[in-house]
Amino acid sequence: MTQPALSHDASPDLLRATFAAEVRAGLTHTPQKELPSKYLYDEVGSALFEVITVLPEYGVTRAEERLLAKHAADIVAHLPHDVTVAELGSGSGRKTRRILEALCKKRPTSYFPIEISRSALQLCRRELGDIERISIVGYERDYLAGLAEVSQDRAADERLLVLFLGSTIGNFGRLAATRFLRDIRNMLAPGDALLLGTDLIKPIPVLVAAYDDSVGVTASFNLNLLARVNRELDGDFPLDAFEHVARFNPDARSIEMHLRAKRDVTAHVGAAQLTVSLKAGETIWTESSHKYRADEVPAIADDAGFVCSHQWIEDGWGFAESLLVAR
């Protein structure tokens, strides 16, 4: 029987204070103003992202779903018998279903989605709650804070499988990705594992179109970040003064998303005690998505304290899942 879903929700006051502090730090950063990409995913942003995943230009999610549909049983076959599952950035949980169903066919499974977005956690519980023999406990936390709690709370006789699916590792450059994976490794025991999704490098026009779709959903997704600042932090950014920009950075092999001021703008963010001015043409950097080659993953894993034991590749769009085992 499916177990009731519980959650560890963060304090709203703490979340707001943290959001305000990070907005202040980002908008005063020089020479490039920036906002953390994790704040794209409030209730509105999460809903818009679900729309993005089915757009014809954005092939990442469909490629991963095809890969997991084909290889979930094989992936699970390479895991220890008893595993607890933690997922960093579960989103709706749709992409995770195949793995969890394959695990739950073999044994009851505890699943801990870790999300900064409460609405995404609620959607995840609705999406996956019908899986037989699953127990779901959500953590409304940053990735590493949530993983630290799960690592401490898990049963001593179970291995931990961390899922980091989608292309979220692409939000980090090579060095930052290695540091982040090392932080994960430091919370794991030898023999624990990480299943890592990676969007692979592909022609630049394909990448740009994936992050700047023809109907403007990604533009709305990006602009919602400023709307969220206005809603939650007493901001007054004029949304009509900004436009979405997606561009490829060849040196970093990444797509960058920016919000570009169409005219001179001065805005206030009350909760951050901040006044910020932008000249026409100046941008706020909101997200990067670095693209990797599949053969780079084992070296990054090794630098972070893992061994890449198996890798599965979807060749249509170009996507990889890599099973990394903690040394």
UniProtKB/TrEMBL annotation:
Provide the top EC class.
transferase
* UniProt keyword Hydrolase present: no
Gene3D superfamilies xrefs: Vaccinia Virus protein VP39
Keyword Methyltransferase belongs to the record:
yes
Q: Which InterPro entries match?
A: EgtD, EgtD_Methyltrsf_superfamily, MeTrfase_dom, MeTrfase_EgtD-like, SAM-dependent_MTases_sf
What Enzyme Commission number(s) appear in the record? 2.1.1.44
GO biological process: what's one of them?
A: methylation
Leader sequence range is none
| MF terms in GO | L-histidine N(alpha)-methyltransferase activity
Q: Which UniProt keywords apply?
A: Methyltransferase, Transferase
Membrane-spanning segments: none
* Protein name, as recorded: Histidine N-alpha-methyltransferase
UniProt gene name: egtD
